[in-house]
Specification:
Blueprint (H helix, E strand, L loop, with lengths): L1 E11 L3 H7 L3 H7 L4 E4 L10 E8 L2 E13 L3 E8 L4 E14 L2 E12 L3 H22 L2
Antiparallel strand pairs: 1-7, 2-3, 3-4, 4-5, 5-6, 6-7
Protein name: Ligand-binding SRPBCC domain-containing protein
InterPro entries: START-like_dom_sf
Organism: Salipaludibacillus agaradhaerens
Length: 143
Amino acid sequence: MFNLTFYYETIIDESLTEVWRFFQSTENLAQMTRLPKIAVLGDSNVYEGAKVHLRLNFLLLNFYWKGTISETVDGVYFIDEGEKLPWPIRSWQHVHTFKALSHNQTQMIDRISVSSFLPSRIMTIGLTMMFSNREKYLHHYFN
């Protein structure tokens, strides 16, 4: 078993209010994630106790993800935690933190604590690819 804490920072040229509003919809998660393709099967809004149920499509293979939004502080952060996760992931906690840098610029920090059957280096590569693609999407969406 391998444990990893992964950080990714994204600076978004938009107000904290607008960035927070965007991240309150799980449908937007599906829109900004290219691989795997995501279908939202659970709650479509982010709130404490919301069920995050996803179908992850990796070309010909589908995996299912079940989690919960365990904590949220309006305009500051929310946490999603995995409950029933696809192989190779054993546990997952994702803290999404938001901070206004100015009236039209927001810092978003993703902190993921994950246990996996895959070595941390492989997980880091996969997460970096996924979050860099999300960052590109966010820069395009907010510009």
